[in-house]
Amino acid sequence: MNYGFTINGKTYNAQNVLIIAELGTSHRADLAKAKDLVSLAKEAGADCIKFQIVYADEILHPNTGIVKLPGGNIRLYDRFKELEVKTDFFYEIKDFVESQGLLFLATPFGIKSARELFNLKPLAIKIASPELNYSALLKEVSSYNLPVFLSSGVSKLADIEEALSILQCPVCLFHCVTAYPAPEIDYNLKLLKTLSGIFGIPCGISDHSLDPQLIPVLSVAMGATTIEKHFCLSRNDPGLDDPIALAPNDFANMVKSVRNAEKKTSGEIIEEVSKEKGLDFVRAILGDGVKRLAPSESANYERTNRSIHALRDIQEGEVFTEDMFAVLRTEKILRVGLKPSFAEKIIGRKASNFIPAGEGIRFEDISY
Q: Does residue 130 contact residue 304 with C-beta atoms inside 8 Å?
């Protein structure tokens, strides 16, 4: 069954795909550059422009480790701090996006950014894959009663089921492979039909592969209602996601290919792509439709997702209070903590061990 997804009275499906240009933080807090990106994305055929509202403290702990960049090593936390912008920026850019006849979309990463986004009066909200298990954030966003795009990279079927049980609002589930770049053969695109059938909701694709057209076009054959692809001026730009994004010409070619695919049957699309790319390659991309962690992302399961981490050193015998921990991504060198759903359950209990700042809080760290 081909489920549709409606925003502001307009329904999107595999014959009318919503194409999202993910600008993320590639604007680097430069409003003029952001407007240039929006204008170029519109010219390339995007229907929707997406941003990210970043506060480093909502995402990870300062002790999470370093990331290697062309300019040298930097703490990952500091890299996210560089991406923070004032709320006024988003009011201005939202007005500009909508003045261009495009849909404005943004991703929050915590309660603070979610509430700031809600105050912008968006028509929909996007939740990124690492936050799929962040139960408090999902409850907050669900209370807004807005349509939600939910990415499901680096997750298992039970994780998705739990997230959807919290989100009591219209949801379009994005199939995603959380790897940068993501190998095309990891996509298992038949999952679009599997997930849509299991949960009875529309599904789309968030594509981190390097090919401008391959995954987007084949996802249309599998019933995708929405396609999200990173957008940049150049892959040589210093934005966090620019190396896997599409420059304007490539994005425009993607849009053209998707619009052509919308007019064809699933079989016709697969036959045409197979002639160009090879049948075995296409079969590998389509996969078997069984939900499992993709090889390129499996090592990051739990580390990319959220868990409970100590905000400061916690001494043995201290009673846990709400200000002593946070639900964060584990990422580089820290240990994984308890699932976010345990956050309220540990308040009032005592620490059974010394817990260094940043480390995950585990069952064995709590006295029962």
A: yes
- Mean pLDDT calculated for residue range 330-343: 96
DSSP 8-state symbol, 337: -
42-88 tens-digit pLDDT: 999 999 999 999 999 999 999 999 988 667 789 999 999 999 999 99
Does the structure show a pLDDT above 80 at 238? no
Architecture of domain 302-367: Alpha-Beta Complex (3.90)
> How far apart, in whole angstroms, are the C-alpha atoms of residue 53 and residue 127?
11
CATH number for 5-286 (one of 3.20.20.70, 3.30.2130.10, 3.20.20.450, 2.60.120.260): it is 3.20.20.70
On whether the CB atoms of residues 174 and 204 are closer than 8 A, the answer is yes
118-127 contacts, C-beta under 8 A, 24 or more apart: 118/144, 118/146, 120/90, 120/91, 120/94, 122/94, 122/146, 123/7, 123/8, 123/147, 124/7, 124/148, 124/149, 125/149, 126/50, 126/150, 126/151, 127/151
CA angle 231, 237, 238 (to 5 degrees): 110
Same topology, domains 5-286 and 302-367? Answer is: no
Please check whether residue 113 is in contact with residue 52, taking contact to mean a CB–CB distance below 8 angstroms.
no
Q: Could you report the per-residue pLDDT of 156-182, keeping only the tens digit for each?
A: 999 999 999 999 999 999 999 999 999
Please give the full DSSP string across 132-191, using - where no structure is assigned: TT-HHHHHHHHTTT--EEEE-TT--HHHHHHHHHH--S-EEEEEE--SSSPPGGG--TTH
Q: In this structure, are residues 193 and 223 in contact, taking their beta carbons and an 8 Å threshold?
A: yes
pTM: 0.96
* Domains in the chain: boundaries: 5-286, 302-367
Q: Length of the chain in residues, anyone?
A: 368
- Which residues lie across from 207 on neighbouring strands? 229
State whether residue 314 is helix, strand or coil: strand
Helix, strand, or coil (residue 103): strand
In this prediction, residue 121 has a pLDDT band, given cuts at 50, 70 and 90, of very high
